Amino acid sequence: MLTKVPESIPEYIRTAQQTARWMQQCRLNQTQAARALGKSQSALANQLRLLRLPTAVQQSLALHRLSQRHARALLRLPTQAQQLAAIETIVRHGLNVAQTEAYIDTLQAAPHSPALCRFLSELRHLLTRLHTAGIPVKLTHTRSGTALKITIEIDAGKG
Question: Is residue 100 predicted with pLDDT exceeding 80?
Fold first, then answer.
């Protein structure tokens, strides 16, 4: 029996690489290329932004079969180490795209206090468990100076 070996990089990144090469060969800017491809300029820009992800992150995305939207969310993290750690959390907790974006929001908003980081990690884990159990959960946060306000919305009519 043949089993499909996972690609080393996701198809959407390979497509972005091909598009970037084509644009360079034809000397097209994003607007011209988008028009030729029948895409919006912003859709093409989002696709090309994925090329900023380090190779190790691209390979991890392929290994874990994460979506293009997961990959785009990871672009908000400044280092490869943070991106790889986030992928580990995404996979471990089975985070969908919305949960991944909320998780990255909390990473970016979190002060460097180890106790607060542990608390936020546990909170994310709890929210993931609720979501997995079929209870819709929404996490939002705002930051004002050194204060971090976290709001959790749970649809009490479900579950």
Answer: yes
Q: Which residue, among 49, 56, 13, 2, has the nearest Cα to 30 in the 3D structure?
A: 49
Q: What are the residues facing 154 on neighbouring strands?
A: 137
Residue 115 has pLDDT above 80, yes or no: no
- pLDDT greater than 60 at residue 3: no
Distance, CA of 149 to CA of 44 (rounded, Å): 35
Query: What is residue 156's DSSP assignment?
Result: T
Q: Which amino acid is at 132?
A: T
CA distance 71 to 67: 6
Tally of residues, the chain: 159
Q: State how far the Cα of 157 lies from the Cα of 159, in Å rounded to an integer.
A: 7
Cβ atoms of 88 and 56 within 8 Å: the answer is: no
Note the pLDDT of residue 110.
Answer: 54
Q: Distance between alpha carbon 42 and the CA centroid of its chain, in Å?
A: 17
Helix or strand (DSSP H, E) at 48? helix 41-49
Identify whether the C-beta of residue 86 lies closer than 8 Å to the C-beta of residue 103. Answer: yes
Question: Residues 86, 74: contact at Cβ < 8 Å?
Answer: yes
